[in-house]
Fold this protein.
Amino acid sequence: MQSSLPRKIAIHEVVLRDGIQNEKKTVSTDEKVKLINDLVECGVRRIEVSSFVNPRLVPQMADADKLWSMIGRKKGVVYAALVLSEKGLDRAIQSGVPHVGIYVSASETHSRKNSNMSIAEAMWEARRLIVKAHGAGMEVRAGVMNAFGCAYEGKVPAGKVIKLVKDFMKREPDEICLADTSGMANPEQVKKLIKRVQDIVGTVPISLHLHNTRGLGLVNVWAAVNEGVSIFDTSLGGLGGCPFIPGARGNIATEDTVNMLNEAGVKTGINLDKLIEASLRFELYMGHTFPATVSRLRFSPLPS
């Protein structure tokens, strides 16, 4: 194993937010609590519990406030949420959320569809939200959506992403996330952009949010790992996809990612067998087969 590889990878589990937001079956609050407990039991130490968004636009997140009042908070586990507006941030503060994600898209078209704001307007709002979140004692992940390309606009110049990262750094975020929202990244692009961002952020951690739209999710993870990135967003079963991007398929599967890292000798602290069991249990609850592959090798498939 190369000496440059991180000693341990942190998995930031997003199935409860990105994963289920496009699912037709409504996931009950009780089921969400059970799933969170299952993930913690597996060894997952970063969980994105919900987003605080308009429930009319994303009905799966309608119970966010109730969910946060019900979850048990285990020491050593980061419980996080996504916010897109000041109203959402206020709800997160009231719910006692310790870690929030605040994102701006590098695509003008996606920005308007996702937030009804231009990139410039969204960044102005994001900077303001970061200051308010820090003032409330929260840790902040500042993220750039469509950092590797956009389903609407095609290639996104790296310079646009760099500009957004520099703007974010003026507000001293605790983490910078590069999101492949449309699933258009390739390994060489990932390596080059990470190197440029590392030069800007210094010791601030970089995380990656990758989608598997073109089947390149895991090779993009490996490319980033070799550049020293040690935080990756994954979704149990490979569920997910942006509701404002047609054809945006799921996030990289947590169990497939953990399996690959295990095979490479990189630690995650996650029990893979327990993780697969949790995934297949949730698969039965949802009533359809998930995209993840490693679970098919170890257990029986979903009954027909």
About this structure: The beta strands are 10-13, 46-52, 78-83, 99-105, 139-145, 175-179, 206-209, 231-234. The longest helix spans residues 119-135.
